[in-house]
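Course assignment 3, question 2. Fill in each field.
Student: A.L.
Task: Predict the tertiary structure for the chain below.
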Amino acid sequence: SYNRPVIDKLTTELLQTSLDVQDFSREVVQSFIESCYSGEPQNISRDNFWEINKISTVFEVSWLVDKCFEFLDSVDLEAYEDQLFVVQEALWVSATLKNERLIDMTIRKFSLAITKSDAFFLREFLSNFSARNPNEMNFAMKIAGNREGIVVESLISNFEGKSNELDANSRYLLGKINASACSKKHTALYLKLIACLETINLKSGEDCGLVLQLFKNVCLRTQEDLHANVVTAKTKFPNLFLDPAILKTHESFSGFLEALTISPLEFNSLMIFDAIYVWSSFHKRSFETEEFKVTLQKAILEQNISPLSSNYISNLFCKEFPHLVSLVQSLKTSDTLTTSKGYARVCSISEYSPAQLFGEDNEIKFIFKEKPPELCCDRIGECGFILKSSGIKNNKKFDINLLPKPEEYPDDLHFHDECLSVTNMHFTIYLRGWREHPLTWRGIPKDGSKGTGHYDWLGWSFAPDHRLRPVVYVNFKSNSSRPIVGPI
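Answer field:
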């Protein structure tokens, strides 16, 4: 007999001559009965596959279950609709009948088909991954294998399309690629993904942690490519245009310091101070001075960075924040946390209106009024450098870079490329009457009023009548030879 245990028991032991089956259609029941009598599958099709497979499983007719699997295995996978049918049926069998055999068979079949068709199915399947359920996402990752590039492409498409925040599935995919190799061949894709993540609203510490972990992995595993593609080490300031999400996400100072500590970016001491300054002004909150001093001390010792410039923190605008005033006073009395040596403060020779500085292209000249002893040169009053800026216009963002080649400088300006580079420079702006404000962690400046001359740099607003003078702090005592990974 082709009848299996359940049917045998019903007919021979329980002596049942009929059975009321309400969970299946009449056609499926008829096909099942004919199959059991003939020993051959009858009329299995795409329309009734899942019912035939289910009724065969319920009544433990294992040979018919095998035939169902053979039917699904015979489906040609050339078209996406055929691929999707096989996947959905395999997932249904796994979720409903608790049988992983069909999943394993489908993965083996797809592993060959994907290689042949350049992963067409996976790209289509993940094109709207936000609508996928957890079982579908798990299956997609099994299919993906080591094709991490496709997963990264899917995340990029999602963020470039409509999503401005992380959902459960984007968190899931970020977690998966964080655990992957972040291979060098996908460097350009990872950098594009990180650029997309700059625009994302990170609502929780978990979200921020995922993004920071991704950045850290990319920095560690594709370091050479990052130096070549993200940061032109001799031109881009490490303290400009950093994503302020880490500041916005963490409302507690302890949580913020912890996130800052695990960040993959390499900081100088001024960038660390900028972080707590901007965090405090953004959240309008005070903090424990000693807690920050411990963090700074740890960074100086463990990361081998130079202490804070006492000149820098003295020139910052702090009077609206009494706790910052107290912090500055406390830091200036510490020989291990601050120093008055090694740093040179140099201002641009010209002042600018906000519209001139942020809306126009400029060559901003800086000349050392007092020649630092590190510049072994007899051209007194001519040593300096030029920053080239591009304005906010024609859908372009504000940008500013160091002019790095001595041959590009005019005859009356002597650039020392042997000791001047952005890796030991810190950029800020002096606002006449208001001193200097830190710029690290403020993101990118924006035109705040459509041509009226008002500009905003994350809470630092510039009116048309403001007079601005760019300022650079040069650390000639910097003992770090490592390139500083800067903004994306």
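Instructor remarks: Residues 114-118, 224-233, 479-488 have pLDDT under 50 and may be disordered. The first strand starts at residue 308 and ends at 309.
Grade: pending
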